[in-house]
Design a protein that fits this description.
alpha/beta; eight-stranded mixed sheet; 234 residues; Rossmann fold
Length: 234
Amino acid sequence: MTRHAAPISGFSSAPPPDRVSATFWALVVAEPLREAVVLDVGTGAGRIALGLAPLCRRVVGVDRDPEVIDEARRRAYHAGLDNTEFIVADADVVDYRALTDESPALVTAHLFLSDPLVEKSARALAPGGALAMVGFHVDQWKETGRPSRFAYDEARMRRLCEKHGFAVEHLSVEREVETFASVEQALAAAIGLQETWKSDGRWFRYIKFLEEGGRTLTRSHVIVKARKEGGGGP
């Protein structure tokens, strides 16, 4: 794993939700959350939003999939959380301030990353507000020879943030390379991706990689925290 950032300090001891990067979570809970309104973009079933709800004044989660939003609402209800709201909308299209009715103090996005996310967050956040993101790095599944169209490298991510008036406070890459003893093990590890990869040709590229002696599969994510310029820090 490679990192390019100052150490994180002074953050809450609240543990990260299941399957959430500890680095990302530490960056998020380092913010002054008690009176904050948080917008969680690409919320899915609300993993991040529900983890943050006990720490802040209000959380709004947005996702375009009605089924996962329904699941997030059920989870919030069963957890007794009355400061959450979950909205069905396309996060690449909707106005973020319209979702929260005020400028959020923090926008989070875990495994949702796009140019519109950064642009719309810049419009919604007041100066000093923060944007924390995790998304695919260009090395994700690099054995297939074709980066995801949703993947970013460090330079592109920094340029995008700075273009929209953000100062990048943290930029790192978390990379895990799994090595297999046999072709069979490598195929078994990727079997859940077969249909998706077949649709864009990556499955056949991965098969070729294995036939040529490759025995790895890389998972790689870029983690970013950026602050809207014109205000102080947390």
